[in-house]
Amino acid sequence: MTRTLLTTSSQKGGVGKTMFAAALLDTLRQSGQRVDGYDADGAIGGLVDLHGSRTSDGHLQDPQDPSQGVVPYDIRDADSRGLLINCLETDARVMLHDLAGGALGALCMLFGDDPATGLIGLDQTLDDLDVNMTILHLVNRDEGSVVSVGQYLDLTTPCRRIGHVAVINRHRAREADLWAWLGTADGQHGGKTRERLLDRGGMEMCLPALDDGAAALALAASAPFSVASQHRDLPLIQRQRIRQFLRAFDAELTPEIRATLGVGG
């Protein structure tokens, strides 16, 4: 049985990786899927704060069970980044890692220190273990997020086991704002990286917009979105906005996207 390693990735910080990872982990677990969760942004990153298992008094449990909570580590630290590979010893079909911004260099260091060949070693390891890897690229109106996708595409050109999904963050972004990814109407600017990704068999989905106030309250709740949407201390209008966000997110997980993520129907 081929398993899937998922990473939320961008060389650019603040593009919505953790928001996406939290929504994905929430949606899949709510549907009964086992997804092991990992937060690669240090001891208490955003994903472990939202999805980490807690004691009865609200403190994060230590250690975390990845199948129920989220295991923290630091992809930038040479002594701990190996967890990205060591996690594959479990029997989980799907493992989700929310990587820190700018983690591409750390990925290259997993099997060497040459950026030109680092991901080839990763690809060979995935092949040895019969694991597919899908890199979930967060793309927003910042041109740097598009440049990041191009960098990953460059380094994974010879890789057989590594695929790509572009996640278009719709927060405060109109179509015109996304010109670097979608291209301008006259075809003169942008769009080239998107063409490369699609030509390589990559796919696209959206991270739906969530009202700023609802997003802030959901994140402050230090709980999955599905749990925050039921918190009675949140105004009803905000709870409904979170629920509608989750419905819209679930709709983005088409059968084709689910197959790419390794989560089936």
From TrEMBL:
InterPro entries: CobQ/CobB/MinD/ParA_Nub-bd_dom, P-loop_NTPase
Superkingdom per UniProt: Bacteria
Residues annotated as domain CobQ/CobB/MinD/ParA nucleotide binding: 7-43
The protein, known as: CobQ/CobB/MinD/ParA nucleotide binding domain-containing protein
Lineage: Bacteria, Pseudomonadati, Pseudomonadota, Alphaproteobacteria, Rhodobacterales
